[in-house]
Amino acid sequence: MIQLIAFYLFATIVIASAAMVIFARNPVHSVMWLILAFFNAAGLMLLAGAEFIAMLLVIVYVGAVAVLFLFVVMMLDIDFAELRAGFVRYLPLGTLVAIILAAELVFAVGAWSAGGVDLAARTAPVVSDTSNIQQIGELLYTRYIFLFEAAGIVLLVAMIGAIVLTHRQRGGVRAQNVAQQVRRRPEDATRLVDPGTGQGVEL
Amino acid sequence: MTETFISWGMDPNWAWGVATVAGILLIALPLMLAVAMIIYADRKIWAAIALRRGPNVVGPFGLLQSFADGLKVFLQETIIPSGANRGLFLIAPIITFTVALLAWAVIPFNSGAVLADINVGLLYILAISSLGVYGVILSGWASNSKYPFFSALRASAQMISYEVSIGFILIGVVLYADSFNLNEIIKAQQGHGLGIVNAFGFNLLMFPLAVMFLISALAETARAPFDLTEAESELVAGYQTEYSSMSFALFWLGEYANVLLMATLNAILFWGGWLPPIDWAPLYSVPGIVWLFAKILFFFFVFSWVKATVPRYRYDQLMRLGWKIFLPISLIWVFLISGWLMLTRYS
């Protein structure tokens, strides 16, 4: 009973907030609705018995990806009049994309429900005495080890690529050498002198 | 607790609901009281180190100072700047406060005395603590004011940077304890050091992680010397500049609840949680919650001590420490620990 209530609560909020991501006028509000959608999707994962995936969803998407989204969106200089200006121009293209996506969705749902496996079994957790962290770990590091490592290498290449593309050497920057600063001792920098009366100190 | 309510003749479903609500209240209310007293303790320690008296007027030894402050902010008017984004401006302190309370659900206070004994407890804490940054970013942006916005940008960069190294440090602990459940992690520490001491912190391989976790915890909660988000000499009061009355107080309470949480995590992950420090039978007759609280208070004292003695970091130094020192070291330590465990435990 309580699972059913929770499921419909989470599912409704996911769909509603996903719609609000598109409908919100302010991009920052859009990102906030997106975060709410992620959160409730994590709730659905919990109901499906995949607590590890649920936590990862919150840590990775809410904790890191959405923060970066918010970071970028907050710094945009938003002009609402300009945002609405291109509406008519992009309408035909937008409609085409929407029709294709809707058709794909219908096909996907159709194929999904036409399959021989009954729907309830697809999300039901495998009954076992080990936690699903251990199960995922065992699968990832034995059966799917090559795919797992390949994904890691692809990500590494992407990361290095992003750094190479954005990194540039800027001239004329007064950068600090921390090692040099730490190495510096009082003896190198200060000098205790005792000048006689009427005599100055030579710098 | 559910069993108790069932034994009183309640319907199992109702008993579960009542027990959960009672458990939440049993944690949240004492936590609020603890936060009020810890703010007082923080001010007293800080004052003592600066050779001042600290709060000493309200109540005996000034003990009621925090309650007087609370009453004062409660009676004040909430001012919303006219240029602010109203909804987000009001939600931001609520997010900070709620998130600070949420993480306590998985903290074990004694063997089995935990509200939610879930097998991904540590991941849950990591997930919840990564949400804390939203309160700061949103308040900074929604205030529509320059200093809070600077503070929000600083805070988001700072918290994300240190979360990375905290994540790797936690992996070290999980590898040793072989579990994500906080109770299991504490039990794994029993007699860890040559069968004498109950703590991962005495393990030579784990001690550097404990030190890094303590420093990262300071950065994660934006306490001195990493309190660049509210550096008063440059940013007025940081992200809370435009806040007043209860909305300000919620930030305040949330911040200290987070500090307590980090002190608790230090105690649980590296120093044995509710286990007595030494694995000696008579010490187990003292309730575990006493040991846990003693450890929490010790780490809170360390936090205040650091706040009173250490000057503030510069922002580039903070980023350098996080990305160029803590991240590589914690990454290497994950390799070291897993290698050591492969040699000793799994070979």
General description of the model:
- The complex is a heterodimer of chains A (203) and B (347).
- Chain A has 203 residues and is mainly α.
- Chain A is built from ten helices and no strands.
- The N and C termini of chain A lie far apart (85 Å).
- With 347 residues, chain B is an all-alpha fold.
- Chain B has helices spanning 2-7, 12-49, 65-75, 86-102, 121-129, 132-142, 146-177, 182-188, 207-220, 232-235, 245-270, 288-309, 315-344.
- In chain B, helix 7 (146-177) packs antiparallel against helix 9, helix 7 (146-177) packs parallel to helix 13 and helix 11 (245-270) packs across helix 12.
- The longest helix of chain B has 38 residues, at 12-49.
- Chain B starts with a helix and ends with a helix.
- At the A-B interface, helix 2 and helix 3 of A face helix 5, helix 6, helix 7 and helix 13 of B.
In short:
The complex is a heterodimer of chains A (203) and B (347). With 203 residues, chain A is an all-alpha fold.
